[in-house]
Amino acid sequence: MAPIASASPSMAIAPDLVRLDARPADKQDAIQQLGQLLAAAGCTDPAYAASMEGRERAANTFLGHGVAIPHGLAADRHLVRRNGLAILQVRDGIEWNPGQRAHLIVGIAAASDEHIAILRRLTRLMQDEAALARLFTVEDAGAIIAALGAEAPEAPAAAATDFAERFDWVLDYPAGLHARPATRWVEAARATGARIQVRHGAQAADAGALIALLQLGLRPGDAVTISAEGRDAAAALARFRATITGLSAQEKADAATAARRATTTVRGFEPTGRVITLAGIGASPGLAIGRIHLLAAHDAAIPDLPLPLAEGGARLEHAIRATRAQLKALEDDTARRLGASDAAIFTAQAGLLDDPDLITTTCQLMVEGHGLAWSWHQAVDRIAGSLAALGNPVLAGRAADLRDVGRRVLGHIDPSLAGGTLHDLPEGKVILVAEDLSPSDTAGLDPDRVVGLATATGGPTSHTAILARTLGVPALVAGGAGLLDLKPGTEAIIDGIAGRLHLDPGEQDLAAARAFIARQAERRAREATLRAEPATTRDGTRIEVAANINLPDQAAFALAQGAEGVGLMRTEFLFLESGVTPDEDSQFATYRAMIDALGAKPLIVRALDIGGDKQVPHLRLPVEANPFLGVRGARLLLRRPDLMEPQLRALFRAAKEGGALSIMFPMVTSVQEVIALRAACDRIRAAIGAPEIPIGIMVEVPAAAVQADALARHVDFFSIGTNDLTQYVLAMDRQNPELAPEADSLHPAVLRMIAMTVQAAERAGKWTGVCGGLAGDPFGAALLAGMGVRELSMTPRDIPAVKSLLRGATLADLKALAARALACATAEDVRALEAELAPAEQAAA
After folding, report:
1. Would you state the torsion angle of the CA atoms of residues 28, 33, 37, 39, taken in this order, to the nearest 10 degrees?
2. Is 681 one of the annotated active-site residues of the chain?
3. N or C: which end of the chain has fewer CB within 10 A?
4. Maximum CA extent, the chain
5. Catalytic option among 463, 502, 681, 747
6. Rounded to whole angstroms, what are the CA distances from 546 to 605, 624, 660, 769, 780?
7. Taking the CA of residue 411 as centre, how many other CA atoms within 13 Å lie in the half-sphere pointing to its CB?
8. Candidate from 310-319, 709-718, 789-798, 815-824 with smallest mean pLDDT
9. Measured CA angle at 341 (ends 280, 737), to 5 deg
10. Which residues of 538-553 are buried (b: 16+ CB within 10 A; e: fewer)?
């Protein structure tokens, strides 16, 4: 084992403080021996051994993997004369606690934090179980000293060295390496199975650690060396290189779009009366009138309550797992409401939870005897502080993301520490003023109540600003600390174009602002009128266009975008977002609220679709090696009547009270499944006395498409999920970033599966819809309509563009286009046909 940097003199491990092949009678005897060694070396007062025993009674110091780290109580630090370590190597081990056996016992005497470097080395050493196990039997004290030698904080960092397989690259992302592309780097590095390092000058980072990558502070034009070691390092490096260079085009396109927006000159609102104006940076355009509501920072004291390390580790793991599920639900919900680009914010946030330094720092602090919540908060604060101190505004935004996700974990550790302050808004329309606002809070704003947002800090490229623009909420950022001194209830006009907040405007300025806002509303109304027009082709064929949403409060927005109903209500979000399994009554209330929100418009509810990439921690489902090929969708429902039957009862109760409700079941692969599912529906419907309602299935696997003729005899309709169908037809995980460009729903094999399904449905007199991503792509929607699909359901924001394209074409043209696409050999050939739609669009215009 190679030695690492030597310890500072105050924490040097003397050979006479390492006792090899020690044979203490029990834990108490081991602690006494360590106390004697430390006292004899002049490190502690003899009474320190009693303090170590007191600490053991207060909190378990067993670190795991055969290592224990007894140390004194914080109140007894005066018994430490100088920092030091004593080590017992117990080859056969002793019982530390029931079920815990210690082989290496490290007694710590520290009056300061100088021992943290040794604890860091120890926790990282524990990740190499083979190396650690060798220390349990080694016959040379020097090997133990070398393995645990602390890094001297004052020693200059050695220049990073590269692995054998390497390449040089100049970063060409116009915005530098920010969170979203860095997340893709991390995913790609981990997928290779090799160890990949990114070096910039003397600094290096593990490509699989998000925070470490961001701390490199890479800017456009920075030269980096990327190297790899491990199995198939050359191939791994080639795949990683393809991923990171493949992102360049999208990063440049995003930057060009941002530049175009930045150079578009739009005059803001200019008051004519005497008003006090506070200036900031315009972050989200628009004008609004409201009263100031000051959002106080959540500065609750974090209690420091020590607990056994094993319990702390288990609670931390649970909190992180719950937060990850919460972020996934938020990501999916944001993708449906605001788009995939904005949802990627929460993918990046989830990536922060994987950073090893965050977990290691938390464990080190718990090892010192601190409580879980306090340790987590400190770890987040330290690492976020280091990111903010780099002087890079983009990385400062990532520090805010880290604090945001840290607050979520803290809330799962202790609900009283969750923060969250948006529940007590006053009546009326408010302009929310805060030091800063987290992305997750911004995504959850109600634009009907919060009409403006002004923050003292932040920047126009922050995730909060991006979400405010997507929501259409006027916002300014970097308004300065003076914003926080505003009197709540003060009337104001916020101008998100110019970045101004006008306080106490007179009636003349209010009237001018209302006229400005009215003109904006008239423009939106004209757009809404066009969105509301049906998607009827020029030769008279009507294509129904519906929305994919999750909850009743999303229905109004979907209808405003032109949705003619809901073609997919994803009920799994009732399970993902609540943290508990919703009972029949709560589900009934949600389904009934959705029906009421839609009025007479149709609603298709998908039964619980859990499995694959949608895991619900509180259901405690068995872990599967390949969940996409495991117990998911219909398979799960038929195996778990405790989940299926309450949902079906709630749905039929809702149908009994009226409304155009249909049910469809996910991931069906056989006729037997459909027969069993329909039997359950018939039995429950009869027991409730509900009317008959349409029952359909999702076509998401080749088995369903191939036997669509047989399945059509038992269902009322098909709804094709193109996202899953694509991954199953092409055998490509749609979440694998390396395969994403190839997992194309326009692949001829996928299109032929869709056509096969539609034709089988037509022969049986049934209709087919599509609720996957292809439906929301105007070109894809055109092909689907040409193949005979008569219902398209999509993200609400995609509806206007899809409707416009369909209204500009004839069905005959669409059929001809679809026929040509089905005859193509590659997805690229299919995409080349998109140019043929241009004349139809021009005719529509």
Report:
1. 50
2. no
3. C
4. 98
5. 463
6. 13, 34, 13, 10, 15
7. 16
8. 310-319
9. 140
10. beebebbbbbbbbbbe
Question: Which of 447, 478, 480 has its CA nearest to residue 460?
Answer: 478
Structure token digits, residue 770: 């599509």
Give the pLDDT band of residue 427 (cuts 50, 70, 90): confident
Q: Under DSSP, is residue 248 helix (H, G, I), strand (E, B) or coil? A: helix
The phi, psi pair for 102, rounded to 5°, reads: -100, 130
| Whether residue 747 lies in the annotated active site | no
**Residue 438 is which amino acid?**
S
State if pTM tops 0.90. Answer: no
Catalytic hit among 43, 363, 681, 771: 771
Q: How far apart, in Å, are the Cα atoms of 161 and each of 158, 188, 193, 225? A: 9, 22, 20, 10
The dihedrals phi and psi of 281, each to the nearest 5 degrees, come to: -115, 125
Scanning the structure block, which residue is given the tokens 């315009």?
Answer: 282
3-state secondary structure of 752: helix
Residue identified by tokens 């080694």 is 138
The residue from 115, 178, 293, 370 that is catalytic is 178
Residue whose C-alpha is closest to residue 64's, from 101, 32, 23, 91: 101
The span from the CA of 379 to the CA of 364, in Å, is: 9
Structure tokens given for 341: 């680009």
Tell me what pLDDT residue 784 has. 97
Q: Are 80 and 44 in contact (CB under 8 A)?
A: yes
Active-site residue (options: 43, 71, 103, 370): 71
pLDDT at 594: 95
The answer to whether 665 touches 711, Cβ cutoff 8 Å, is no
pLDDT over threshold 70, residue 462: no
CB within 8 Å of 80: residues ≥ 6 apart: 43, 44, 45, 48, 72, 109, 110, 111
Helix residue ranges, H only, 446-583: 463-471, 507-532, 555-560, 572-578
d(CA 480, CA 492): 17
**Position 51: which residue type?**
S
Examine the residue annotation and report whether 771 is marked as an active-site residue of this protein: yes
Position with higher pLDDT, 766 vs 278: 766
Residue 276's DSSP bridge partners are: 503
The DSSP 8-state label assigned to residue 571 in this structure reads T
Residues 243/208, Cβ–Cβ less than 8 Å: no
The residue among 598, 592, 589 whose CA lies nearest residue 566 is 598
Length of the chain in terms of residues written: 845
The 8-class DSSP code of residue 217 comes to -
CA-nearest of 599, 591, 600, 602 to 566 is 602
Report how far residue 354's alpha carbon sits from residue 324's, in angstroms, rounded to the nearest whole number. 10
> At 340, is the secondary structure helix, strand, or coil?
helix
With tokens 């770890």, the residue in question is 379
Instruction: Please state, in angstroms and as integers, the Cα–Cα distance from residue 142 to each residue in 116, 392, 407, 493, 836, following that order.
Output: 20, 43, 43, 71, 76
63-112: pLDDT as tens digits: 777 888 888 876 677 788 878 889 999 999 999 888 788 999 998 887 65
Please state the φ and ψ torsions of residue 663, each to the nearest 5 degrees: -120, 140
